[in-house]
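Q: Please design a sequence for this.
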């Protein structure tokens, strides 16, 4: 009897161990599948938010303009810390909205898309309507502030940092809203993973690149002082390329704002969405159809973004004038 009971117990233990092994395999497969899903959704979210990234880079790099060279990295670091705080506020807020008011995701995306278009159009309007000497005067005032010992540079830096963190909050909200739209139907754990991942990746990526961009001129000057003619040539090339890099980032960021913002608006309006899809499907039948099928829908998204940005800017300008304020353009 005792031996029979022992054998039965061992058999039960073996069965339990088999069940545990099976459940572990199933859990492992589910974990791998979830990790794959999170990875895919993070990539999709990163692609959709990349439109904001170019403008984020250009704006934040411009924010440190006028700061002394030795203080550029500390200022960038201070803004990066403020950006992390912004994400700590925005990510839980987005998760709460997804959990308790999922119907609000689409309207928030539409508002974010409209704001992107407005911001892009406002930048273009400012460039076209403001004379170059106004921008030159602003840069000159920054240079004088650095050269004047009577100017409180600590207060000057704090103002710069506060302005950059405020700008980052708006851009971060756009990034989180777009990401939330990507994972709105995913399980809660995946939403947390993707939103947190995007928040960390974007913050480190943006401010790491900003730090590199603002120090390009210093790198160029350092290389220009080297004995090697090759190093001097590279340094001179960097010094010539740095201003063009900033301009290129600004242009790419503005174009991306229209593309991403217009795409969000098109996707949120069924008539426009089906119309753009129809154009893409028809274009696929043309010669080199694959190219046209990608190009035309994006051009239409950008066109919608430009029109929407102009309308929002006109509305905001009208309200400001009625209230006796200064026009944003």
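A: Design:
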């Amino acid at each position: 009897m005792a031996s029979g009971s022992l054998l039965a117990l061992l058999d039960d233990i073996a069965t339990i161990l088999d069940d545990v092994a099976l459940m572990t395999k199933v859990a492992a497969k589910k974990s791998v599948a979830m990790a794959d899903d999170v990875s895919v959704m993070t990539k999709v979210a990163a692609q959709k938010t990349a439109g904001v990234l170019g403008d984020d880079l250009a704006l934040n790099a411009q924010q440190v303009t006028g700061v002394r060279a030795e203080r550029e990295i500390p200022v960038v670091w201070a803004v990066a810390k403020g950006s992390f705080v912004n994400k700590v506020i925005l990510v839980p807020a987005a998760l709460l909205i997804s959990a308790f008011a999922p119907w609000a995701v689409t309207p928030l995306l539409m508002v974010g898309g409209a704001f992107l278009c407005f911001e892009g159009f406002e930048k273009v309007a400012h460039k076209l309507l403001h004379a170059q000497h106004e921008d030159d005067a602003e840069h000159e005032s920054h240079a004088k502030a650095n050269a004047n010992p009577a100017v409180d540079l600590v207060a000057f830096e704090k103002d710069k940092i506060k302005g950059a963190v405020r700008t980052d909050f708006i851009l971060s909200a756009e990034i989180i809203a777009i990401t939330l739209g990507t994972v709105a139907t995913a399980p809660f754990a995946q939403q947390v993973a993707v939103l947190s991942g995007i928040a960390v990746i974007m913050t480190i990526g943006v401010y790491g690149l900003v730090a590199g961009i603002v120090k390009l001129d210093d790198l160029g000057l350092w290389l220009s002082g080297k004995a090697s003619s090759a190093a001097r040539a590279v340094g001179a090339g960097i010094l010539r390329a740095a201003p063009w890099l900033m301009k290129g980032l600004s242009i790419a960021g503005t174009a991306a704002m229209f593309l991403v913002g217009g795409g969000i608006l098109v996707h949120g309006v069924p008539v426009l969405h089906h119309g753009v899809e129809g154009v893409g499907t028809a274009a696929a039948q043309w010669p080199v159809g694959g190219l046209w099928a990608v190009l035309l829908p994006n051009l239409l998204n950008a066109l919608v973004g430009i029109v929407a940005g102009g309308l929002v800017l006109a509305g905001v300008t009208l309200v400001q004038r009625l209230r006796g304020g200064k026009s944003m353009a």
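Q: Thanks. Anything notable?
A: The radius of gyration is 26 Å. DSSP finds ten helices and no strands in the chain.
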